[in-house]
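Appendix B: complex inputs.
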Amino acid sequence: MIRRVLRVAAAQLGPISREESRIEVVKRLLALLDQAAEQRADLIVYPELALTTFFPRWYTEELSDHDHYYERSMPGPETRVLFDAANAHGIGVHLGYAELTDDGHRYNTSILVDGTGRTVGTYRKVHIPGHADNEPWRPFQHLERRYFEESNDGFRVWRAFGGLVGMAICNDRRWPETYREMGLQGVELILIGYNTPLHYAPDPAQNPLQAFHNHLCMQAGAYQNGTWVVGVAKGGTEEGVESLAQSAIIAPSGQIVAQAVTTEDELIVANCDLDWCRHYKETLFDFARYRRPEMYGRITGQKGVEAPS
Ligand code: CDT
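Resulting structure:
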């Protein structure tokens, strides 16, 4: 039997400063792409909001004051060179960016393009963390709820790279529903970019656990759905804010098979055998045999906690 082995490169980024131009950032992405080509990767996975600094940390009265951080098309004028270069190498690309639509909607988005240059799909972040109003008491803000809408597109899975591929973005990775929605579509590879500050203002007791929680949720999501998960950070100290690195490629067993060791631009590569997923999907997590959806009504029927009286 021919095994479906996809060679995946997770392209972690170090910080992007406020002054850095798109063209300068794309040069960094191209350098990582060159490494991915040298290592014969089939797919390169860049993180969330990979083209700019993490601008939701700054409050502006007018949303439009941050418009220069958004892309109006993808590929766009400054990013086309990246997709052309990837296509020349026959490498697929996953890239996170801020999307501003023609009719004025703002999404935290990722695109997946295959090795022939075909757009497989786009994903718009479902779980938008942080806050929408100015909260100057914080050492830095997390205004994603001001600058991005919650997407209602849901979690799709696409046939690509010889398998079944889905996407999620950063905070999505903390929610089991994210993985299960895709698990129920047979997903074999989930691509996730993240920007995770080490300081969590609402409960700093969580600060030392950031790295643990990052891997905990992605490893659990991989194992419980029998899928590969690729988590890719923009880490390091960006505009004074320290963010988690530790990008990881996780097998359907839940084991980490490759992990970044720096907080800078760094490529890690792993051979992802998509047929390994069957070991879990056809045994312990044989959904059709063992799941009890009739017992899980609250999961979709209820939003917040309703404690018994
Ligand atoms: N980018 C993103 O979603 N970051 C959040 C930070 C915590 S909420 C302030 C995360 O879940 O990692």
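The mean pLDDT is 98.
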